[in-house]
Amino acid sequence: MSNLELPFRSLAAVITGTSVLLIMNIVSVIGNILVCLAVYRNPNLRSTTNLYIIALAVSDLICATVEMPLTSAVFIIGKWDFGDALCQIQGFVDLFASYVTPATMTLTAFNRYMRIVKTNHYNRVFSSLRSKIWLSCVWLFLFLYLLVGRLTGWNKFQFIPGYAVCSIAFVKNENRIIHYFLMFGILFVLPLSVGCFSYCKVFTKIKQHQQNVASSLQNASNGIGRISAKEINISRALGYVAAGFLFCWIPHWVFAFWKRFSPDTSPRITELLVTILLFMSATINPVIYATTNPHFRKEFVKLLCWCNKKVIQPTEGRSSGEQ
Q: Which of 26, 98, 146, 277 would you call most buried, defined as having the most Cβ atoms within 10 angstroms of its Cβ?
């Protein structure tokens, strides 16, 4: 078997796997485009917190438009048949999308902590300009890390049949160990620690606020009353996003480490799950916004109704002309 070909799969496995990948691809593209359009159309959604939601949607769209279609095609034809140039692009996108998502989630969790718990310092840390600077610096650092590593020969991108994607590979085993432990610390342990600490403090503060409101009117003197219902809804929605992130990324890292450091004991299903969990992470966020955030849900409904009208009106016009 060539190193560009997938291992043998039954017809049922091909149909099932391809169907799952295509459904996630379609949902991810439509859902994340709706998120971006909702913020573009509604000025009330253009907050500093939603800047990070847009960043998550963009990173998920990058994955959904470059990585997912190629992986679906590979799963159908059973091999990588798109040349080395496209493999390099997919490999870079695979790593970049995998890295910017947890980094952006860390910024989002810290943003919620400052907004709900340290309200008096929020505007100093997360002004509109500084929020963009934080985000740009994190994304630029990860972009340059991957670019410099590739240009200097620290790593390379090649097709990995088990994952059915082009991803990172290393010439030296030492490079692989350094890379994975560095990325594991920065992009899993750090987001997990910051997220758990931040959302624990956030929901404790919200609980105190609700208890205060239940006993009396909002008391502006104690700082708790400054938490608006809108901020509470946003925090709850992002709490669900963080839970979805953990649901996808904890097993993702477990399976990835298993494959990278003990490939002989890793069954094929764990390799496919690494890819599927990454794609699932890029798919579920719009669903979470739609089910937990009324402001996004309202905009999604408006957008879908508007698209439906655009499709129906030309059809009705042609029907009237024929009569």
A: 98
